[in-house]
Amino acid sequence: MDTILILCRAVPEESKKYFHTVCVAGVTDKGEFRRIYPVPFKRFQQRAGIPFRKKEWIEATVLPPDRGDKRVESRKLDFATVKVLRRADDNEVRDMVAKCLSPSVKSIESRGASLGFIKPRIVDCECIIKSTEELDRSQVDLEGRLAGKIKLDQESRYKFYCQERKGCCEGRLHNIEIRDWEANELYRNVIRNEKKHSVIKHKVRKKWLDWMIDRDMYFMMGTHHVFKTWMIVSVLYLRKP
After folding, report:
1. String of DSSP letters for 184-219
2. H or E stretch including 183?
3. What number of H helices and E strands is found in the chain?
4. Contact (CB, 8 A) for 122 and 212
5. Which has the closest alpha carbon to 1: 58, 39, 55?
6. How much is the pLDDT for 44?
7. Theoretical Cys-Cys bridge with 115: which of 19, 33, 105, 226, CB 3.0 to 4.6 Å?
8. Which helix (H) or strand (E) holds 106?
9. How far is CA 8 from CA 23, 35, 68, 138, 148, in A?
10. What pLDDT digit, counting tens, does each position of 39-90 carry?
11. What is the pLDDT of residue 23?
């Protein structure tokens, strides 16, 4: 039985077995990283499609990962055993992150890990718009109306430096995609009322860059299970102490 503070909820991905799955990650009460995958995403389930939320402590029995997932932090959950304990405040989250903080993406990689926290120095943020269509023409909701797309056609990216640039980003800053669920949902909220690309990009940038200036920010970095490329799987923006 593990006790885990959930600190990442990524954008749902299509799955042949589960229809849609979510990669969730966090840190145990012993300071160990846990990637929980796959977590089946149920479109009309309460709590936004999965049984727990970011910044919640859960207790559950963990199982070995799928055979093809060789990342050391990966586990599966016995969902019949999941119990949501309580919600952590920003100070508790900051304390947990501080215990696991790395100076750079390279330092996470060099120790053979595929998950880690960094404190970035953000330079810029961009939103790449592929489509402003929100509705999924192949799905209807419980009342027979067209359902919204789960994964929207956009790509938000941060350009940033790590605290320790040497051997990592001393010659060129990072330009990495944000796979946090909140990036997907921010885009959804914007395109409901706005279709002009320049305005959409401005509103997304205003939230992910301008608004974040007054927050204590950390990234949870994680690797893709197939391509091993680094992604920002979670953006933690905490109230400053």
Report:
1. HHHHHHHHTT---HHHHHHHHHIIIIIGGGGEEEEE
2. helix 181-191
3. 4, 14
4. yes
5. 58
6. 45
7. 33
8. helix 105-110
9. 8, 9, 22, 29, 22
10. 877 654 554 557 788 999 999 999 998 888 889 999 998 988 999 999 999 9
11. 86
Render the burial of 201-211: b for 16+ CB within 10 Å, e for the rest.
bebbbebbbee
Burial class (CB in 10 A: 0-12, 13-18, 19+), 164: middle
pLDDT value of position 213: 85
- Dump the DSSP string for 50-93: SS--TTEEEEEEEEPPPTT---TTEEEEEEEEEEEEEE--HHHH
Q: Give this prediction's pTM.
A: 0.89
Amino acid identity, residue 56? Answer: E
pLDDT beneath 50, residues of the chain: 44, 47, 146
Give dist(CA 57, CA 51) in Å, integer: 12
Residues 6+ apart with CB under 8 A from 96: 5, 7, 27, 31, 88
Rounded to whole angstroms, the Cα distance separating 94 from 240 reads 10
The answer to whether residues 169 and 162 touch, using CB atoms and an 8 Å cutoff, is: yes
Task: Kindly state the percentage of the chain with pLDDT values over 90.
Answer: 65
Return d(Cα 134, Cα 148) in angstroms, integer: 6
